[in-house]
Structures are given as structure tokens and as C-alpha cells.
Amino acid sequence: MAVAAITEQLKKHVAAIHTSGELSLLERKLANVLLLNAYDELLTKRTHTLPVRHLWAMLGWDDSNNTEYLQEALRKLNSTSIEFNMMKDGKHSWHVMSLLAYGNIEHGICTYSYTEYLAERLYKPEIYATINIGVQHLFTGSYALTLYENCLRYKTVGSTGWLELELFRRIMGADAELYDEFYRLNERVIKPSVKEINRVSDIQLVAEFKKQGRKVSAVRFMITESPQQALLKPVIENDHAAIQESDLFKKLLEHGIGKRLAILWILQDEARVREVVSYVEAKAHKKQVKGSTAGYIRTLYESEAVVGKTPFEEKKAQEEQGKKDEEQRKAQEKRRLVREAEFLREHTTAAINALSIEEKRVWASSYIAEVGSATTQTYNAETANFRVGLERVQFLAWLHKRLAPQINPTEYKAWLKRKEGDRESTKDGSAKL
């Protein structure tokens, strides 16, 4: 019963894709990256572009100046055929074509295209599952990544079904005569690939073999979720979920950028995406964008165009900001000195007003002894005051210096808070009037 159920479900997956010829790990990763970049526009555009520097970054390749290596990889994709086995009117329908129809590298841009038929097939996720770039980076073996891609399509049904060894070798690109002997195929291709998939990916495989007589004639892979899937998901899935919740991602969608491309850009260079979007929106508000904002955003992002300030403008802006900061610092210092002077004046005036007549006389006597009687002729000892205004002002100025307190930080903060409250009350009162 269980086998019958699986067999019936497998009919939904008979449109599996097989490639002929052995692809290296870089070539297989390149095929996936190019597809991911083009995916949202597979049905609307025949030609797609991707900056070479972004392409290398997605592949995790450090030698970004090795254009010949990339050319060779594109050449291999162009010469590799891809086959479809499909069901049509109850009968098998077989198709073959090149994995990549066209490739070009010029001015730091990789341009490529698929045939119309292949693009239509690739756009259907039930036929071809694009590989998450985060998972792809974890693989170090070409055979392991190839097997992972093919098994991933059967994850929901739990089995690839039986694959004749000849077909399996074609799918894996293990066409060398060396693999005519099953034990070598098993030791060098099947076992290492299963081991790596179980170690780094979100699925776990168990290989099973069918014999005809004493020889192994077919292989199938039982597929379950990996026990470490919970550890992989926060890195692979939740990161993308977080991106899709971000304002930047939503802005890209509003401008007409596809979901996959938006995620790809943000993963590649979030700062540049944000800069480009802000630049284009500012231009759009001024009605300086001809055509769609999506096209303008894509053109700017994928080129080397400077969308922010040039180094000269940045330096000039920093200098101007430095001047503003200095002016602001001086203004704050001036306000601080004014406030402290006001605090001291209030407290000193209060201290003078609190002096008794006897205390005033003592201070007046000290003042007269210091400055001399010639400038203090109008002093009245009975009132401890000076009758002439000029002499009185000079005495009070002298007394302020003597009675000015040291600023206590706690008292000063409380005084500032009270003053701010009084100012707000004054503002509210004025507004009401």
C-alpha cells in the first residue's frame, strides 16, 4: 500500500530534468545563480544580465579577476544538454536542448539567455526547484550538489523512485568508464555524496539498491528531513523571512522589482540597494525619472554608477558638518556659561539679601579698608549702605565676588530643571493668551 501510494505520487514528478555531461561544482553553482537572477523575468525577457562582481560574490569565489575561468564555465553550460522526460496524453514526451543558449561578458557585465521552451519549463517550480544560495555555499563536491538538487524535488514524497544505473549515471554526469563498475560508482560517487548531503543540508538520504541476479541494476534514495534542519533554518529560511519583512524589501516590490531579485540584491549589498532606492525616489519626486523606477533602480544597482556623493562631495560634506558641529559646540558652551552665571547671580543675590545689618556692616568695613575711604565717602554706618548709586554698585559688585558660591552639581541640575519648567509654563501661558 505504501509503495503504491508513493508510486502514484511520483507521477507528478516524472518531468524531472536530467543534464548530460559532467558539470564541475563551480559550473553547477553558476547554473543555479544565473537561474535565480533571471527567475522573475524568465517569461517576459529572453536576455538577462548580472554584474560579474556580484556573480562571483554569489558563487563565493575570491578570484574575481579570473574572467577566463568564468568564460570556460559559461562555455560548458552552453555545450551541456538538458533533457525533459514528461507525460503528455498518457505518453512519455522527451525533449533536449542546451542548458544555456547564449553567454557574453563585456564591460564587467555577464549577459545570458535561455531558449523560450526551456525558460517556460524552468519557471515552473514543480518541475525545477531552484537551489537556495545559502545551502549551495555549503557544498564542496559537484556530485553531492547534483544529487541534492535531484533529490530535493522528491522531498514531499520521500523517495526518488528506482533509477536504472545508466540513467543515474547520466543524471550525475558520472559517464567515465571508471564507473562502469558499480563498486567504484558507489565508493566514489554515491557514498561521498550521501555523506555530504546528510552533513550539510536540510535533507537526509539513505541509498537503497535493486539487483538483477548478482548485479546492482538500480538505485533509489529515501528522503527525510534532516535532524539538523532546525539548525539550518534560522540561517537559510529565517534570514529570508526577515528580509521579506523589511521596509527595504517592501519598497523594492512597490517599485516593481521581483521577490527573488529583491532578496538577492539585499543579500549581496544591502547598503547599495538602500542608497539606490533613496536616490531614485528623490529623483522621482522631482519628476526626473523617465520610464519606470524599476528599470532605473536595476540599471543603477547593476552598474558602477555613483548614486550617492562623490568622494570630493563626501569630503566637502564632512568639512561642512565639522564646521556645524564646532559652531554647535561653541553655542552649547556659551549657553552653559550663561546658565551658570545666572545660577551664581541668583544664589549670590539671595545670599546678600539674607545678610543681617551687622553682617553687612562687617562686609562694608572690609570693603572700605580694601579700597580706601576716598571712594566710600557716602557710606552710612547706621544703615550699612551707600547713599550714592555709583559707590553702592561698586560695593555690591565687590560683595558678589566674595559671596559667590561654588557650583554644586546636584543643586545646579535641580535649578536647571526648575528653570526649564518655568520656561515651559511661560510658553503655555503666552499661547493661551
Automatic annotation (TrEMBL):
GO terms for molecular function: DNA-directed DNA polymerase activity. Residues 312-332 are annotated as: Disordered. One of its GO terms (biological process) is DNA replication initiation. Residues 10-151 form the Initiator Rep protein WH1 domain. It comes from the Bacteria. Transmembrane segments: none annotated. InterPro entries: Initiator_Rep_WH1, WH-like_DNA-bd_sf, WH_DNA-bd_sf. Belongs to the initiator RepB protein family. This is Initiator Replication protein. The lineage of its organism: Bacteria, Pseudomonadati, Pseudomonadota, Gammaproteobacteria, Methylococcales.
